[in-house]
Amino acid sequence: MAHIQVDPNPAMSETVDAPAPFRPAVDVARDPTIVPRPDGREATMALLYLSRQTDGEEWRALLTAELPGLDFRTPGEAGDPAEIDAALVWLHPLEELAGYPNLKLVASLGAGVDHVIVARRAIPDGVTVTRIVDPAMTEQMTEWCLMAMLNHLRGWDAYRELHRERRYEERRAPLPRDVTVGIAGLGEMGGHCARVLSAMGYRVCGWSRGPKRREGVACFHGMDRFADFLAPCDVVICLLPLTPETEDLFNAERFARMKPGCFVINAARGRHIVEEDLIAAIDSGRIAGATLDVQRAEPMSGDHPFWYHPRIVTFPHVAAFTVPRTCAPQIAENYRRMRAGEPLMNVVDLERGY
Ligand SMILES: NC(=O)c1ccc[n+]([C@@H]2O[C@H](COP(=O)([O-])OP(=O)(O)OC[C@H]3O[C@@H](n4cnc5c(N)ncnc54)[C@H](OP(=O)(O)O)[C@@H]3O)[C@@H](O)[C@H]2O)c1
Predict the structure, then answer these.
(1) Catalytic residue, candidates 120, 195, 311, 317
(2) Measured in whole angstroms, how far is the alpha carbon of residue 78 from the centre of its chain?
(3) The domain 2-134+323-340 is classified under which CATH number: 3.30.310.50, 3.40.50.300, 2.60.120.260, 3.40.50.720?
(4) Which of 47, 185, 305, 320 would bridge 190 by S-S if both were Cys, CB 3.0 to 4.6 A apart?
């Protein structure tokens, strides 16, 4: 574990009867690892890594390189809860955050924060929640959505089958200009995807919560325009955050109003889609098929019908990874800003839920 160097100062030793007057001994704006406590003692404050996915060693190496002397701790090293002022979190039970009285920052290691929002009550008031906004992640997402869409439009699976059967047959694909792609969610991910698809010549519509203007994109907003947004789409790509408003958004009623033969792509969260309704809509022929990076329960159980459906392809939540190398600078900068009392980047609106 990395420990910081604190100048020994006898006046601040444990044996002093009366606490010394509050006096910042270091410039906290410049030294992000030492904070003065109200009792006059200097304390090492630490950043705690809470992720079910990795042991954190890569983050430790990258963040201590950005912030020399940073006290980076994993759960086994947590020590005194009063010394934790920030938590890096990903898919970890967050109820324990309530036990860190000096917590100021919870940084999600993903773009989505639904895993933090569900544990909101455990997060003490006044704690800022941030998320990842990273072009390297956004580019991966656009690439994955493009792959899923082109696979459908260009008949990749059908050609694969023909290849296996050694049949040399043509299948006509629609021209990009004749394909309408609807992107639900026009934020970091959806906005980028819309720009790229529009530049490639597709007709692009987008749907967001508030009004938007995007060149080359027909923009709709608000729940009362959702059906209008969906109606012309040959392909719908979901890039929404999971909130109470967007949960179960794609259900039997919505599928019934979509253009016959529409193809569904979900790269956001599984709970946007009512899975049995999607299967029924595909079986009825209304929806052509679906490519789903995310599912309601991940990993899916062995008997989940998606595994067996000929027109559904699932991926194991891999559309866009958080890349520690490209994300460490923004985490480090936010930690520095938090210590310096400066406004943070990529702050989540807890009321809005994203
Ligand atoms: N599968 C993966 O590997 C992966 C990786 C990263 C992220 N994700 C998912 O992708 C999601 C989107 O990420 P992002 O960074 O693009 O999020 P973002 O920047 O916060 O954008 C969210 C977009 O959704 C819109 N929206 C939110 N609630 C809405 C509502 N009730 N009605 C209509 N539109 C609504 C927002 O509208 P406004 O613009 O009007 O606010 C915004 O345009 C994440 O939340 C996460 O769940 C998945």
Answers:
(1) 317
(2) 25
(3) 3.40.50.720
(4) 185
